[in-house]
User: Fold this.
Amino acid sequence: NLDQGFGHNSSTMIVVNTPSQELAFTNFAYCSASDFRKFAIRGSNPAQVIVGDSVVLPLVYPLFALLYIQILHHSNVSDGQIALNAVQRRHTKVSAGDQISVITFFPPTTFSLALLTLELDYVKAKANRNEELDAVVLAQHLQKKFSNQVMTIGQKVLFEFLGTNYIFTVNQALVEDEEKANAIERGIITNDTYIVFEAASSSGIKIINQREAASSNIFRQKNFDLQNLGIGGLGEEFTQIFRRAFASRIFPPHVTNKMGIKHVKGMLLYGPPGTGKTLMARQIGKLLNGREPKIVNGPEVLSKYVGETEKNVRDLFADAEQDQRARGDQSDLHVIIFDEIDAICKSRGSTRDGTGVHDGIVNQLLTKIDGVEALNNVLLIGMTNRKDLLDEALLRPGRLEVLVEINLPDENGRLQILQIHTNKMKENSFLAADVNLQELAARTRNYSGAELEGVVKSAVSFAYNRQINMDDLTKPLDEENIKVTMNDFLNGLQE
Ligand code: ADP
Assistant:
């Protein structure tokens, strides 16, 4: 689909060398001021063509050697000439004196690159060929430098980093839509672009911190509307869980394989009861595959009959197993939430009855996420109020390896939780004007989310109660005029 994005104006221009040595290592091409003006004002929608004070141009060469670059004007370039540096000339297979056709290009604005795989190499042979490049720093640098620039598969780009000139080749570009990542021919680099580095085998460059770069890049900018999901506070925790559990899942296997890092298959949310662990895990499961995740409860899974519990655990994974068998790599991700996991995964040998029943269950769980025939398509989210009771074996790498502590909400978190739980009554005018949620948030130090919800319920019960005439229960209720007042909330606090 080469037509997409191209303007209709093309000019024939003569290739010349970069006008000065100092411009040899930039990614701009240069033309004369009058040609520059022509490019800038031509095209049906010039505003789209201009990026800063430059024009984005594809250079089209016979045989479709394409180069998308930005063009600037320079006084040393004559009309009808286009000055390309050595890398640009090599890439488009043109030499000084060649005639090429230049077309204005409307950068695709509808998508940005979600992932960019860059192969790094030096521009020239270097004495020191054992350099370590930090992927985190590099990604930030590239994002800043090439922000809003069009990149095309196969394109070679020069850049200077800490005094050395490198060249990168764009090897792969993907853009994510709601469900999966699609390979694209070109896109624009944005702050959300997730950049993966590869080192050209001959370069001797070693890339470090690839994993950190991956996790710091993606989802960094995604703001989930937690309030809308009914979750108060916990913004950072939610983002952390989402990033650790799902960032890698969005990318296709050939990408994640190159990273050499396996998906996180289990995480543990721990902290005081009623702080929103279940709530959050459930919403995350839903966000991910649009349906309710499976939630089981430790004590429920524990069956009185020996052997029955292990069957319960096996059943939990049955759907995921079937899906994996049927669809392999294409299988959905199955989120399994295990509430009160400490009930079945207490330190082995510490079981009350000493029968070793629990050991069998723990082993069963571990086999499913970590064993020889482990499932690749599950995410087990364990939850506990008592992390100290858990069997250490469960927390090893490859198992419930990401630990996220969910604490009691701070004042701002409490305010959000109170807003969430009073939102409906407010919409329906049942909340009296004197209710000051900010003040209630300030007065509820050390309350958990569940306790705050309890306060709201209690306040509502006081309001209901006021409408009931105890002397004459047959008297019709005045439904319209129920108001939950600040006083009701204060009474609720006392309960
Ligand atoms: P946990 O799993 O941490 O014990 P839950 O998620 O089961 O706690 O919380 C119980 C209820 O308390 C939730 O269903 C929700 O109504 C309320 N709640 C707890 N934490 C929050 C929160 N952070 N935001 C909104 N509601 C909360």
User: Anything to note?
Assistant: The chain has 16 helices and 21 strands. The CA atoms of residues 434 and 455 lie 17 Å apart.
